[in-house]
Amino acid sequence: MLRTIFLLFLIFALSNASVQDFCVANLKRAETPAGYPCIRPIHVKAKDFVFSLGIPGNTTNIISAAVTPGFAGQFPGLNGLGLSTARLELAPKGVIPMHTHPGASEVLFVLDGYITAGFVSSANSVYVQTLKPGQVMVFPQGLLHFQINAGKSPAAAFVTFSSASPGLQILDFALFANSLPTELVSATTFLDPALVKKLKGVLGGTG
């Protein structure tokens, strides 16, 4: 008797179970630490789950590089799924400076050209590799890493992150593109104050 009651209860529970398969971002609402609010499923379209990274970014800048993000703000179908993507473009001599993603690990897939990439572990061990098209490299969450064009022609790569909001902090900008006094930057980095002022001037910092 108890078994029959249990089976009936299980069938009833399963028949009324509701699984939220996705949470397409409502970009008209503000993003929260948990992501964007969901739009109603009745308004979801197939195009919400499709995004194009086929157009190269503009590399005419100080680092001769460009990153085209495919985060929830651009790619609503990613919202709530714990991942995101981007396209990386490196002109000859282009570089993505030392930076970290506090919220995610990163996988880089080289599409064109040659890219020297690497990261520094928390024990200050260095892992560097020159990658060719078709090769993949992973950068563990929170560790300083970089990418440099290692060839004489443009290079391109796709990256994926293990979070919808990986975060980004570029070391050079963190040190020299802010209002932290030169004396403090010099004291904490052991760099000459004149060099700190020069770098602040280049990157737009003050102090």
Automatic annotation (TrEMBL):
One Pfam family of this chain: Cupin_1
Question: Residue ranges of the Cupin type-1 domain?
Answer: 51-197
- Where does the protein principally reside? secreted
Supply one GO CC term from the record. Answer: extracellular matrix
| Presence of the UniProt keyword Secreted in the record | yes
UniProt keyword list: Apoplast, Disulfide bond, Glycoprotein, Manganese, Metal-binding, Secreted, Signal
Q: Which residues bind oxalate?
A: 101, 106
UniProt GO molecular function: manganese ion binding
Compartments (UniProt record):
Secreted, Extracellular space, Apoplast
Q: Which cysteines are joined by disulfide bonds?
A: 23-38
Per UniProt, Mn(2+) binds at 99, 101, 106, 145
TM spans, by residue?
none
Signal peptide feature range? 1-17
Family the UniProt entry places it in: Belongs to the germin family.
Q: Mind telling me what this protein is named?
A: Germin-like protein
Species of provenance:
Brassica campestris
